[in-house]
Amino acid sequence: MAIKVYIAEDNEKQRHILEQTITNYQLFSNWELELTYSSGAGDKLLEKIDRRNQWNIYFLDINLDEDAGLSNGFALAQEIRKFDPLGFIVFITVRSELSFLTFQYRVQALDFIIKDPAMDIRERVQTCLKTIEQRLDLLTTNQTVKLNTGNEITSFIVDDILYFSTNKEHVLSLHTKNNQYLIYQTTLNNLEEQLSDSFLRCHRGFLINKKSITSIAKDFSSITSEDGVTIPVSVRKKRQLKSLQSKLLFCS
Fold first, then answer.
1. Distances in Å between the alpha carbon of 235 and those of 214, 225, 229, 239, 242?
2. What is the helix (H) or strand (E) element at residue 33, kind and residue range?
3. 52-100 pLDDT per residue, tens
């Protein structure tokens, strides 16, 4: 499985250090790691990303080339998240006070590396790559699900999915902890069969991740999901929910 690495860094010296560090790491990696594209311009990097690839790593400077489009690394990360919810994003900057913005932009960054003249960022970059490999080792095929999001097939980590719901015109909605996606060319019946160990079909219009259930109504008529949404439970599913209650993660 190829892991493609992308760099957006407008400082030529820093970009060269990143490229060299990743190239050196490749020599000792058990994974098929590929430095695919490196640039100082966010818009150029966005054009070069292979959106069909399952696993990508992005090293993004926060302040990019101002003469090019997408000079803000956070905005670039938001664009990436629109088609790559599983990509590993690492921000690099000289301004440590900007780290809190990773939460404001809701891009789920893996790390935030400070370009400190007194520190060598090579070690931090290598640590990030090692962390990513360890996470990928844990992601077996049954921990991810590939779904059609319209323009491409996208992989989702099962544990990140809160629930699926029906939508108009035979389209489903997938709700994750941070985003919502339209899903095509499948049905709740198909997903229920595929994800039966982790999900509960509580209603004809909903398939919910058991781990995302935070509470159950006393009369078992509804479930509350992690995002605070109340999901109905059909009469014929109440008995199944009762039997599952003691096995769910939350304390009822």
1. 20, 19, 19, 8, 12
2. strand 32-39
3. 887 899 999 988 767 666 778 888 998 998 888 889 999 988 766 555 5
Q: Work out whether strand 180-183 and strand 199-203 pair parallel, antiparallel, or are unpaired.
A: unpaired
Sort 149 into a burial class: Cβ within 10 Å, 0-12 / 13-18 / 19+: middle
What DSSP letter does each residue of 90-135 carry, written as one string? EEEES-GGGGGHHHHTT---SEEEE--TTS-HHHHHHHHHHHHHHH
The pair of three-digit structure tokens given for residue 132, joined into one six-digit string: 């990513």
Domains of the chain: 2-139 (3.40.50.2300), 145-245 (2.40.50.1020)
Q: Buried b / exposed e across 29-47, counting CB within 10 Å, b at 16+? A: eebebbbbbbbbbbbbbbe
**Residue 203: enclosing H or E segment and its boundaries?**
strand 199-203
pTM of the model: 0.59
- Residue that is written with structure tokens 């029906």 in the block: 166
Evaluate whether 64 touches 11 at the Cβ level (below 8 Å): no
